[in-house]
Specification:
With about 130 residues, this protein is an all-alpha fold. It has 5 helices and no strands. Bound molecules: protoporphyrin IX containing FE (HEM).
Length: about 130
C-alpha cells in the first residue's frame, strides 16, 4: 500500500512537471515570435538608414537585408502558435487567430515585396531601391 502512495506521489510530481513545462512553453513562443519581429525591424532599419543617407549605400547589405526580411516573413505563420495570444507581455491581438487567413496573407505579401526589394537591390541602383 505504502509503495502505491509513493508511486502516486511520484506520478503527481511527474504530471506537475509536465504541466509546468507545458505552461512555460507559450511564454517562450511569444519571445520567439518577438525575436522574428526584431529581426524584421533591424533589417528594415539597415535599409532605411541607407536610403536616408544615415549609412553609406551598399547594394550587398540592401540585398542581404531584403533577403532576411523575406526569410523572417516566411517564419511568421509558424511563429504565432495557437493559444499564445495572452501568454506573457505581447502586442499580439486575438484577431490574428480569429482571422488566420488574413494574417498569413499579410506575411505572404511582405515575403513577395521583400523578394522584389532583394531583386532591385541586386541591381545596385540606389534610386530604384528607394522607389
Ligand atoms: C518589415 C515588416 C515588419 C517589421 C519591421 C516588424 C517589426 C516588428 C517589431 C519591432 C515588433 C515588436 C517586437 C517586440 O515586442 O520586441 C513587432 C511585433 C509584431 N509584429 Fe511585426 N514587423 C513587420 C511585419 C509584420 C508582419 C508581416 C506581421 C504579420 C503578418 C507582423 C505582426 C506582428 C505582431 C502580431 C507583433 C506583436 C508580437 C507580440 O508582441 O507577441 N509584423 N513587429
Amino acid at each position: 500500500m505504502k509503495i502505491s502512495y509513493v508511486t502516486a506521489a511520484l506520478a503527481a510530481i511527474a504530471v506537475g512537471g509536465v504541466v509546468w513545462v507545458a505552461q512555460a512553453a507559450p511564454a517562450d513562443d511569444v519571445k520567439a515570435r518577438q525575436a522574428v519581429m526584431k529581426e524584421m525591424g533591424s533589417n528594415v532599419g539597415a535599409i532605411t538608414k541607407m536610403l536616408k543617407g544615415e549609412a553609406p549605400y551598399d547594394a550587398a547589405v540592401a540585398q542581404k537585408s531584403a533577403d532576411a526580411i523575406a526569410a523572417a516573413a516566411k517564419k511568421v505563420p509558424d511563429a504565432f502558435k495557437p493559444n499564445t495570444g495572452d501568454a506573457g507581455p505581447t502586442e499580439a491581438k486575438a484577431t490574428i487567430w480569429s482571422n488566420w487567413q488574413g494574417f498569413t496573407d499579410k506575411a505572404t505579401a511582405l515575403d513577395t515585396e521583400a523578394s522584389k526589394l532583394a531583386d532591385v537591390a541586386k541591381k545596385g541602383d540606389q534610386a530604384a531601391l528607394a522607389e
